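Task 17 of the worksheet. Students: predict the tertiary structure of the chain below and write it out as structure tokens. Keep your answer in the requested format; marks are given for formatting as well as content.
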Amino acid sequence: MMQRHFRGLPRAMPAIIVTIGLAILAGCATRPSPEVLTPVHLSEPPRSEAAPDKVSVLVATNRTPDSVRGGFGSTWAEKLTYEQYAFSVPPGRKDTVITYPKAKPDPERQFAVVERKQLPKDAFVQQALASVQPDGTVGIFVHGYNYSYQEALYRTAQIAADAKLPGAPILFSWPSAASVAGYVADRDAALSSRSELDSLVTSLSASAKVKRIILFGHSMGGFLVMETVRELKLQHRDAVIGKLAVVLAAPDIDVDVFRSQLRDIGPMPMPISLLVSKDDRALVASSFIAGERPRVGRLDIDDPVIEEAALKARLRVIDITSIKTSDGLGHDRYASLAKFGAQLTSFESGRRSTAGDVGAFVFDAAGAAVASPFRLAGRVVGAR
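Model answer:
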């Protein structure tokens, strides 16, 4: 039902070439080397009155360590590595652009790692449990295609700083090739990472202190999240699934594949949330690579058929087109959503779904989720 109402995909080859060209240009920007993972000492006090923010990030990764450069590569490791980072984040930022540190970092303009240490699994879990929010919530971010380890790590720090999250969010970094040409390789790597993400989620859910795990997947990371939840369901691990609040931002998932995943998973105790936008040009490119098959991240909530499908599948489909983007492709809006963290957390309320919290919504630039034109039920999450 969803697929036949996808009419936004361009069929003219010149338009496709332009779109893919934009994606390639975005990927060709200067990328940070593993050296940005090396802790720095910020001895000079800031010149302005506003001091840099301090945030912590926990990481679990199944990438293979790069012993020469001190980072992690794109090959698949046989076991997870666990790390803990502390960041200095420049104050007063007006957008989501990350300025990486140079030899002598400027804390007023640049992000920087100030502490880094590797942890055994038990210590990692203890640190994660120490970061659980008062309501029992812990968050896991799963990055998308074409991300290096350091890019995913710094993005998680940006989100944590803007959302003003208590405690440390968790990054799960799977072995992306960090290459525009590595789309197929990345899809294979995402599929190969299901058991590792399963292991991480299971380790956290085992604690009675954890009441809710927000599993936030961006782009191809959303595909990995859904495959992991499907695996948990097929193994009848309902105790773990009962704690999951799944959020998929610009999910790079074929619509028919997603329908199949939903059929296997069934209704979730906490409804799955989809953050979508019709003008996501990165997903146009991935649709083209996949033979012009539509992606879930470009669902049109103005279509009453999508509204009906969302209600039937007990989903929250939230249009975030109005949120500012910084990548020129409309694919990184999720990073700008961090400042609306309180509203999104409220929307991911942790109660069992009711008829009033599933369907299609619009997340406006003021930070509110309001009913779609086909669902005049009024405001769902308070704005301002």
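Marker's comment: The two ends are 36 Å apart (CA to CA). Confidence is low (pLDDT under 50) at residues 1-28, 349-356, 370-384.
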